Amino acid sequence: MIKEGLSKDPEGYGYNNEAEISEITVGQGMQIHFIDGAKLRTASDSLIETVTPQDNWEFLILSGGIPKSKMIIQKDANGSYQVTEFGGNPNTLAYAIHSLQAEGEVSEPTLIRERDEYIAAFKKDNQELIIAPQQVSSAETKGLSNISEPQAPGHLIDVLQTMQNDSSDDEQDGSGTIASAYYADDNNHLTRSITISAIIALVAVFVFWAYLRRRKQPK
Fold first, then answer.
1. 51: which of 3, 33, 95, 195 fits an S-S bond (Cβ 3.0–4.6 Å)?
2. Which of UniProt's keywords are assigned here (predicted)?
3. Per-residue DSSP letters for the chain?
């Protein structure tokens, strides 16, 4: 079914031709979790506690062992599994799945989908950690061999809560991405830290200069 669907428009789905599609294989996949908005509003230090598992599983579609697209398998009311979607850029999904695998032995590995972005969450040594979502361009540049360091979920929760408030209170459409907001905040924190350090350094230089000048004045 997947190959038949992709063969209708190989280039549109990112493949060279039907011959390439005939060689594709299904790669790794995980169950999808959605964030519960009500639980998010009161969250502080756990993202995993805000999510609800769905009857959806997203899988990578591989060409020559490399993620080429993705598909969604859904469990229907009769308990049967059906392919409901296929195609699309797989890089951010692949990044999240491989991020979890790179951590080795973890507990509660969780793949969260929010605004078509993917967040990897897990627990290690009784501590909850997350791999923040990646922008498509960033995931393509980093590849799967350069995974970001996991972080505590607090900052991401703050970002999600801010976006939640912006879209509900200010009547915005919530079009900004989680990844751009998350890393913009990181950059702002870094800029402020650098600015504060520079000011402290300048003050220290001025105080030292004033001290030397006073010593050189004739008594």
1. 33
2. Membrane, Transmembrane, Transmembrane helix
3. -HHHHHHTSTTTTT-S-HHHHTT-EEEEEEEEEEE-HHHHHT-SS-SGGGEEEEEEEEEEEEETTEEEEEEEEEE-TTS-EEEEEE-S--HHHHHHHHHHHHT-S-EEEEEEEETTEEEEEEEETTEEEEE----HHHHHHH-SSSPPPPB-THHHHHHHHHHHHHHHHS-----S-HHHHHHHHHHHHHHHHHHHHHHHHHHHHHHHHHHHHHHHS--
